[in-house]
Write a structure and sequence with these properties.
This protein is an alpha/beta fold and 289 residues long. It has one domain (14-57, 67-287): TIM Barrel (Alpha-Beta Barrel). The protein has helices spanning 10-13, 21-30, 33-46, 82-86, 114-123, 134-139, 141-149, 170-188, 205-213, 236-243, 260-275, 283-287, and strands spanning 63-64, 67-68, 77-78, 90-91, 100-107, 128-132, 153-156, 195-196, 202-203, 217-219, 251-256, 279-281. Strands 5, 6, 7, 11 and 12 form a five-stranded parallel sheet that branches. Helix 5 packs parallel to helix 11 (260-275) and helix 10 packs across helix 11. The model is unreliable at 1-56 (pLDDT under 50).
Protein backbone atom coordinates (compact mmCIF):
# COMPACT_ATOMS: atom_id res chain seq x y z
CA UNK A 1 0.00 0.00 0.00
CA UNK A 2 0.35 3.21 -0.28
CA UNK A 3 6.81 10.11 6.73
CA UNK A 4 9.99 10.15 7.34
CA UNK A 5 13.08 8.56 5.87
CA UNK A 6 14.14 5.13 7.05
CA UNK A 7 17.30 6.61 8.50
CA UNK A 8 15.26 7.84 11.48
CA UNK A 9 14.88 5.04 14.00
CA UNK A 10 12.10 5.02 16.57
CA UNK A 11 14.53 6.05 19.28
CA UNK A 12 16.19 8.71 17.17
CA UNK A 13 12.99 10.18 15.86
CA UNK A 14 10.01 9.77 18.15
CA UNK A 15 11.54 10.34 21.57
CA UNK A 16 13.21 13.72 20.98
CA UNK A 17 10.01 15.24 19.58
CA UNK A 18 7.50 13.49 21.80
CA UNK A 19 6.07 16.85 23.04
CA UNK A 20 5.32 17.68 19.41
CA UNK A 21 4.19 14.29 18.23
CA UNK A 22 0.53 15.26 18.15
CA UNK A 23 1.43 17.59 15.29
CA UNK A 24 3.06 14.67 13.53
CA UNK A 25 -0.02 12.52 13.80
CA UNK A 26 -2.39 15.36 13.02
CA UNK A 27 -0.63 15.67 9.71
CA UNK A 28 -0.20 11.94 9.42
CA UNK A 29 -3.87 11.08 9.61
CA UNK A 30 -5.13 14.25 7.92
CA UNK A 31 -4.75 12.87 4.43
CA UNK A 32 -6.57 9.66 5.31
CA UNK A 33 -9.51 9.79 7.69
CA UNK A 34 -9.88 13.54 7.34
CA UNK A 35 -9.95 13.12 3.59
CA UNK A 36 -13.16 11.22 4.07
CA UNK A 37 -14.32 13.67 6.71
CA UNK A 38 -13.71 16.69 4.49
CA UNK A 39 -15.59 15.06 1.63
CA UNK A 40 -18.61 14.72 3.87
CA UNK A 41 -18.24 18.34 4.95
CA UNK A 42 -18.31 19.30 1.31
CA UNK A 43 -21.71 17.67 0.99
CA UNK A 44 -23.04 19.40 4.07
CA UNK A 45 -21.74 22.87 3.34
CA UNK A 46 -22.24 23.07 -0.41
CA UNK A 47 -25.47 21.16 -0.75
CA UNK A 48 -23.95 19.10 -3.56
CA UNK A 49 -25.00 15.52 -4.00
CA UNK A 50 -22.63 12.64 -3.38
CA UNK A 51 -22.52 11.89 -7.09
CA UNK A 52 -20.82 15.23 -7.70
CA UNK A 53 -17.79 14.33 -5.60
CA UNK A 54 -14.99 12.72 -7.58
CA UNK A 55 -13.20 9.82 -5.96
CA UNK A 56 -10.57 8.18 -8.17
CA UNK A 57 -10.58 4.46 -8.68
CA UNK A 58 -7.58 2.31 -7.84
CA UNK A 59 -4.66 3.38 -9.99
CA UNK A 60 -0.88 3.17 -10.07
CA UNK A 61 -0.56 6.74 -8.75
CA UNK A 62 -0.04 7.55 -5.08
CA UNK A 63 -3.34 8.34 -3.37
CA UNK A 64 -4.69 8.95 0.12
CA UNK A 65 -7.56 6.79 1.26
CA UNK A 66 -10.77 8.83 1.28
CA UNK A 67 -14.47 8.21 1.82
CA UNK A 68 -17.70 9.77 0.62
CA UNK A 69 -20.62 9.14 2.98
CA UNK A 70 -23.67 9.18 0.75
CA UNK A 71 -26.38 7.76 3.00
CA UNK A 72 -26.44 7.13 6.73
CA UNK A 73 -26.27 3.46 7.60
CA UNK A 74 -24.84 2.53 4.20
CA UNK A 75 -21.27 1.72 3.24
CA UNK A 76 -19.50 4.84 1.94
CA UNK A 77 -17.81 5.12 -1.41
CA UNK A 78 -14.04 4.84 -1.19
CA UNK A 79 -11.17 5.51 -3.55
CA UNK A 80 -11.35 1.89 -4.58
CA UNK A 81 -13.99 -0.79 -4.43
CA UNK A 82 -13.90 -3.90 -2.31
CA UNK A 83 -13.38 -5.91 -5.49
CA UNK A 84 -10.46 -3.76 -6.69
CA UNK A 85 -8.73 -4.05 -3.34
CA UNK A 86 -9.29 -7.80 -3.08
CA UNK A 87 -6.76 -8.58 -5.82
CA UNK A 88 -4.08 -7.23 -3.46
CA UNK A 89 -5.42 -8.94 -0.32
CA UNK A 90 -6.53 -5.49 0.82
CA UNK A 91 -9.74 -4.50 2.58
CA UNK A 92 -11.77 -1.42 3.44
CA UNK A 93 -14.95 -3.15 4.64
CA UNK A 94 -16.79 -6.45 4.38
CA UNK A 95 -19.23 -6.92 1.53
CA UNK A 96 -22.12 -8.04 3.69
CA UNK A 97 -25.55 -7.12 5.01
CA UNK A 98 -24.68 -8.73 8.34
CA UNK A 99 -24.43 -6.23 11.18
CA UNK A 100 -20.82 -7.02 11.97
CA UNK A 101 -18.12 -4.52 12.91
CA UNK A 102 -14.33 -4.85 12.82
CA UNK A 103 -12.68 -2.63 15.42
CA UNK A 104 -9.21 -1.24 14.74
CA UNK A 105 -7.05 1.29 16.57
CA UNK A 106 -4.04 3.16 15.25
CA UNK A 107 -1.38 3.35 17.97
CA UNK A 108 1.41 5.80 17.27
CA UNK A 109 2.30 6.41 20.89
CA UNK A 110 0.80 5.84 24.32
CA UNK A 111 -0.56 8.67 26.45
CA UNK A 112 -2.55 6.72 29.01
CA UNK A 113 -5.79 5.97 27.19
CA UNK A 114 -5.14 2.47 25.90
CA UNK A 115 -5.83 0.68 29.23
CA UNK A 116 -9.35 2.15 29.43
CA UNK A 117 -9.95 1.16 25.81
CA UNK A 118 -8.87 -2.39 26.61
CA UNK A 119 -11.18 -2.44 29.64
CA UNK A 120 -14.16 -1.54 27.45
CA UNK A 121 -13.25 -4.11 24.81
CA UNK A 122 -12.95 -6.79 27.49
CA UNK A 123 -16.33 -5.88 28.97
CA UNK A 124 -17.99 -6.35 25.58
CA UNK A 125 -15.89 -9.33 24.52
CA UNK A 126 -15.00 -7.34 21.40
CA UNK A 127 -11.82 -8.29 19.51
CA UNK A 128 -9.74 -5.48 18.03
CA UNK A 129 -6.58 -4.93 16.03
CA UNK A 130 -4.08 -2.30 17.20
CA UNK A 131 -1.97 -1.08 14.28
CA UNK A 132 1.22 -0.07 16.08
CA UNK A 133 4.17 2.06 15.04
CA UNK A 134 7.56 0.72 16.08
CA UNK A 135 8.05 3.07 19.02
CA UNK A 136 4.69 2.11 20.54
CA UNK A 137 5.81 -1.51 20.74
CA UNK A 138 9.32 -0.64 21.88
CA UNK A 139 8.18 1.73 24.64
CA UNK A 140 5.22 -0.26 25.96
CA UNK A 141 6.09 -3.96 26.19
CA UNK A 142 3.73 -4.67 29.09
CA UNK A 143 0.85 -3.00 27.27
CA UNK A 144 1.60 -4.98 24.13
CA UNK A 145 1.54 -8.17 26.21
CA UNK A 146 -1.81 -7.18 27.68
CA UNK A 147 -3.24 -6.51 24.20
CA UNK A 148 -2.18 -9.97 23.05
CA UNK A 149 -3.11 -11.78 26.26
CA UNK A 150 -6.63 -10.37 26.12
CA UNK A 151 -7.18 -11.81 22.66
CA UNK A 152 -6.49 -8.81 20.47
CA UNK A 153 -4.13 -8.48 17.53
CA UNK A 154 -1.17 -6.18 17.01
CA UNK A 155 -0.92 -5.10 13.38
CA UNK A 156 1.94 -3.40 11.56
CA UNK A 157 1.80 0.37 11.09
CA UNK A 158 5.49 0.49 10.04
CA UNK A 159 8.62 1.31 12.03
CA UNK A 160 8.89 5.06 11.37
CA UNK A 161 5.47 5.98 9.91
CA UNK A 162 6.77 7.12 6.50
CA UNK A 163 4.93 7.80 3.26
CA UNK A 164 5.25 4.26 1.99
CA UNK A 165 4.27 5.24 -1.54
CA UNK A 166 7.64 7.00 -1.83
CA UNK A 167 9.45 3.71 -1.17
CA UNK A 168 10.13 2.13 -4.52
CA UNK A 169 12.25 -0.89 -3.59
CA UNK A 170 10.87 -4.06 -2.11
CA UNK A 171 13.89 -4.26 0.22
CA UNK A 172 13.21 -0.86 1.81
CA UNK A 173 9.50 -1.54 1.99
CA UNK A 174 10.16 -4.86 3.70
CA UNK A 175 12.57 -3.27 6.19
CA UNK A 176 9.89 -0.88 7.48
CA UNK A 177 7.70 -3.88 8.30
CA UNK A 178 10.35 -6.33 9.46
CA UNK A 179 11.75 -3.92 12.06
CA UNK A 180 8.32 -3.86 13.72
CA UNK A 181 8.04 -7.64 13.45
CA UNK A 182 11.38 -8.03 15.24
CA UNK A 183 10.33 -5.79 18.13
CA UNK A 184 7.08 -7.69 18.50
CA UNK A 185 8.76 -11.09 18.50
CA UNK A 186 11.24 -9.96 21.17
CA UNK A 187 8.32 -9.10 23.46
CA UNK A 188 5.77 -11.80 22.64
CA UNK A 189 8.08 -14.61 21.57
CA UNK A 190 5.99 -15.44 18.52
CA UNK A 191 5.86 -14.12 14.96
CA UNK A 192 3.66 -11.10 14.30
CA UNK A 193 0.58 -11.57 12.17
CA UNK A 194 1.04 -10.03 8.73
CA UNK A 195 -1.63 -7.33 8.95
CA UNK A 196 -0.57 -3.92 7.62
CA UNK A 197 -2.06 -0.43 7.59
CA UNK A 198 -0.19 2.18 5.54
CA UNK A 199 0.61 5.40 7.38
CA UNK A 200 -1.80 8.24 6.54
CA UNK A 201 -3.68 5.79 4.33
CA UNK A 202 -1.32 6.71 1.49
CA UNK A 203 -1.02 3.92 -1.03
CA UNK A 204 -0.12 2.97 -4.56
CA UNK A 205 -0.79 -0.23 -6.43
CA UNK A 206 2.96 -0.93 -6.44
CA UNK A 207 2.99 -0.83 -2.65
CA UNK A 208 -0.15 -2.93 -2.45
CA UNK A 209 1.57 -5.49 -4.65
CA UNK A 210 4.69 -5.38 -2.45
CA UNK A 211 2.65 -5.97 0.68
CA UNK A 212 0.92 -8.91 -0.94
CA UNK A 213 4.25 -10.33 -2.14
CA UNK A 214 5.50 -10.19 1.44
CA UNK A 215 2.46 -12.11 2.64
CA UNK A 216 0.62 -9.15 4.13
CA UNK A 217 -3.06 -8.30 4.22
CA UNK A 218 -3.62 -4.53 3.98
CA UNK A 219 -6.43 -2.79 5.83
CA UNK A 220 -8.03 0.59 5.20
CA UNK A 221 -11.32 1.59 6.87
CA UNK A 222 -14.92 2.60 6.17
CA UNK A 223 -15.73 4.47 9.38
CA UNK A 224 -13.59 7.04 11.21
CA UNK A 225 -13.75 10.54 12.65
CA UNK A 226 -11.36 13.30 13.71
CA UNK A 227 -10.19 11.93 17.06
CA UNK A 228 -6.41 12.36 17.05
CA UNK A 229 -5.83 16.07 17.81
CA UNK A 230 -4.95 15.98 21.50
CA UNK A 231 -5.87 19.57 22.41
CA UNK A 232 -9.04 19.52 20.32
CA UNK A 233 -10.71 16.32 21.43
CA UNK A 234 -14.32 16.00 20.27
CA UNK A 235 -17.16 15.86 22.75
CA UNK A 236 -19.14 12.68 23.25
CA UNK A 237 -21.97 14.21 21.26
CA UNK A 238 -19.68 15.08 18.35
CA UNK A 239 -18.22 11.58 18.33
CA UNK A 240 -21.60 9.89 18.46
CA UNK A 241 -22.96 12.12 15.69
CA UNK A 242 -20.44 10.53 13.33
CA UNK A 243 -19.94 7.04 14.71
CA UNK A 244 -23.59 6.15 15.27
CA UNK A 245 -25.06 7.62 12.09
CA UNK A 246 -22.36 6.40 9.70
CA UNK A 247 -21.94 2.88 11.05
CA UNK A 248 -22.93 0.25 8.50
CA UNK A 249 -22.85 -3.52 8.09
CA UNK A 250 -19.30 -4.73 7.57
CA UNK A 251 -17.61 -1.54 8.83
CA UNK A 252 -13.90 -1.53 9.45
CA UNK A 253 -13.82 1.08 12.21
CA UNK A 254 -10.70 3.19 12.67
CA UNK A 255 -10.19 4.91 16.03
CA UNK A 256 -7.03 6.24 17.67
CA UNK A 257 -5.94 4.74 20.97
CA UNK A 258 -4.39 8.09 21.94
CA UNK A 259 -7.83 9.74 22.10
CA UNK A 260 -9.17 10.60 25.55
CA UNK A 261 -12.63 10.87 24.01
CA UNK A 262 -12.42 7.31 22.72
CA UNK A 263 -11.28 6.07 26.13
CA UNK A 264 -14.20 7.85 27.80
CA UNK A 265 -16.97 6.83 25.38
CA UNK A 266 -15.95 3.38 24.14
CA UNK A 267 -18.01 1.38 26.63
CA UNK A 268 -21.13 3.42 25.85
CA UNK A 269 -20.36 3.42 22.12
CA UNK A 270 -20.07 -0.36 21.98
CA UNK A 271 -23.30 -0.65 23.98
CA UNK A 272 -25.12 1.61 21.55
CA UNK A 273 -23.84 -0.33 18.57
CA UNK A 274 -24.99 -3.56 20.22
CA UNK A 275 -28.41 -2.01 20.82
CA UNK A 276 -28.51 -1.27 17.08
CA UNK A 277 -28.03 -4.98 16.44
CA UNK A 278 -24.30 -5.02 15.71
CA UNK A 279 -21.75 -7.52 16.93
CA UNK A 280 -17.95 -7.53 16.72
CA UNK A 281 -15.60 -9.77 14.83
CA UNK A 282 -11.87 -9.90 14.14
CA UNK A 283 -9.90 -8.99 11.04
CA UNK A 284 -8.75 -12.61 11.03
CA UNK A 285 -12.33 -13.62 10.31
CA UNK A 286 -12.62 -11.00 7.58
CA UNK A 287 -9.38 -12.05 5.91
CA UNK A 288 -9.91 -15.77 6.42
CA UNK A 289 -6.62 -16.10 8.31
Amino acid sequence: MKHFAKKFSSSAFFRPIRPKILLFFAGAFLAGALAGHSVSLFHASSGSSASEVFLPSLSSESSSWGLSFQENGQRPTGNASIEELAQYNAYCAADTDEKVLYLTFDSGYENGNTPAILDALKKHNAPATFFAVGNFIEDNPELVRRIVNEGHTVGNHTMTHPDMSKISSLESFQQELEDVESLYKEIIGEPMIKFYRPPRGIYSTDNLAMAKQLGYHTFFWSLAYVDWIQDQQPSKEEAFSKLLTRVHPGSIVLLHSTSSTNAAILDELLTKWEEMGYHFSSLQELAGV
